[in-house]
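Supplementary notes for students who missed Thursday's class. We covered one full example, reproduced here. Read the sequence, then the structure, then the short commentary at the end.
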Amino acid sequence: MPNLYNVESRKTLRKKMLADDVKRVTLSFYKYFFIKDLINFRNLIYVNFNKLKIFGRIYISNEGINAQINVPIFYFHTIKRFLKKIDQNFRNIYLNKSIFNERKSFWVLTVKIRKKIVSDGISNKNFFINSFKKYLNATEVNEMFKKKNTLLVDVRNNYEHKIGYFENAIKLPGSTFREQIKLITNYLCSFKKKNIILYCTGGIRCEKVAAWLSYNGFNNVYQIKNGIIGYVKDAKLNNLPILFKGKNFVFDLRMGERITKDVLSNCKNCHALCDSYTNCQNNSCHMLMLQCSDCLKKFNNCCSLTCKRKIGI
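Structure (token representation):
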């Protein structure tokens, strides 16, 4: 029986990944569909992805799968074939390639069973059944962006929005997705007659928000096809103006992909323009923060002198 979990330490796995010169590509994919036997499905994904030396973070629940992975480039088509083989719901699966792949993004494979692949805190399951979705490509987004009756809504977290966004987009209140989706209908009630365009990193959160808004009587709800990643790639392919500014936050080692030269936020310590995230090296703190290269050196990867002293640097 093969190992169904990592047996080496994360430190060892990271060292191996950094020393590996195999060309890789970062992908994300999701699919909402009912999975009955979660343990068997989870183990099937883990064993086969582990054989292919795929790293990343995958969540599985009864409502589907959500994956961000880093793959040896020569296994790209192998993954597609494997997914189609294990379940017919993967027949039309779209693997969303990262905008830039010059940096390695994961060094360990983690496949976890969760209650939901996107935690929404909504007990009513009916809202997500047979919901009608309207997807926009980059051309359509740019055209609708010009119209006065259009409202762009960012359904990501505050720290994601800080470093990159569509100009004039509304940022939802709440510090987590669970809070945001509960507040959104009241928050947007005065905009009910507008064309509402939702956007997030790759599209998975927009699926739920679009369904929830439609269930609550919002008739003109759209979402950007394949999220910010899909929009930028589509705009570049068709030589269109890119209306997203700054960096797109990503949930891996890179913590961001630069889309435009705009730097939209500031260093936590010195307040200089900065859009590079890091975590405080003091594990009892581990704060996610924006920190410029000068302050990174000054505080030795810590958020403050207090944390720097605590770890004895």
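Commentary. Residues 38-51 form the longest helix (14 residues). The mean pLDDT is 90. If anything here is unclear, bring it to office hours.
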